[in-house]
Write a structure and sequence with these properties.
20% strand, 7 helices, six-stranded antiparallel beta sheet, alpha+beta
């Protein structure tokens, strides 16, 4: 049976987890690898575009999931973010000061893949994701980076939901109130509703 793009990525994720020394738990169905840290998880997610399968373009997302923010999300209910701050390997050049200069995205024929593919991705994880994990080692630093649209992460107004969760987990909702004044009217209306929901949960009245 021909190898499908989905099957290829699932097998690649397993190989990647093994090559990373068993430090990451691998969730096959969502192509996600998680490594526990002192305050949450470091997360990797493979991302492949297979529009022209068997030729695919492969990159990976990476981010930090903070335990305190995750606990709050569970109390609030609804969607839970795989990471509360994130970046994409394709955006390596935006991460100023990063010393890694190796491959960060791959164009492949899944029926004829390079033998060095897994080792190249491992090198990219160490060269791109590991510095990210170190830079955003705590929630306050992550919150500030999103708020000021630091190019090392996905930030600014489109990521108000992550910022709100982090501010709430930091017990600093006034920061979000001030920052969210810059949102457009539609997003501000959504943010105010979510803000009130979280505030009620934290007050124990939801």
């Amino acid at each position: 049976m021909a190898l499908t793009a989905a099957k290829f990525q699932q097998e690649l994720g397993a190989s990647l987890a093994q090559s990373l020394g068993g430090q990451y738990r691998y969730f096959k169905s969502r192509l996600e690898l998680r490594r526990a840290s002192s305050d949450g998880d470091n997360v990797l997610i493979l991302a492949g575009s297979n529009k022209y399968s068997p030729s695919i373009s492969l990159s990976f997302y990476f981010g930090r999931n903070f335990a305190a923010a995750k606990r709050l999300e569970k109390r609030v209910g609804g969607y839970q973010f795989p990471y509360h701050i994130q970046q994409y390997s394709l955006n390596r050049s935006a991460m100023s000061g990063l010393s890694y200069s190796g491959p960060h995205t791959w164009s492949l024929d899944i029926n004829d893949t390079p033998k060095a593919l897994t080792s190249e991705i491992v090198a990219a994880v160490h060269g791109i994701a590991d510095p990210f994990f170190a830079r955003f080692s705590n929630m306050e630093v992550a919150r500030d980076a999103i708020a000021c649209n630091d190019h090392w992460c996905f930030g600014g107004f489109p990521f108000w939901r992550q910022l709100l969760i982090l501010d709430a987990a930091l017990d600093d909702l006034p920061h979000f109130q001030q920052w969210s004044k810059g949102l457009g009217s539609f997003e501000r209306s959504q943010a105010e509703a979510k803000f009130e929901q979280i505030a009620r949960v934290q007050a124990g009245v939801a």
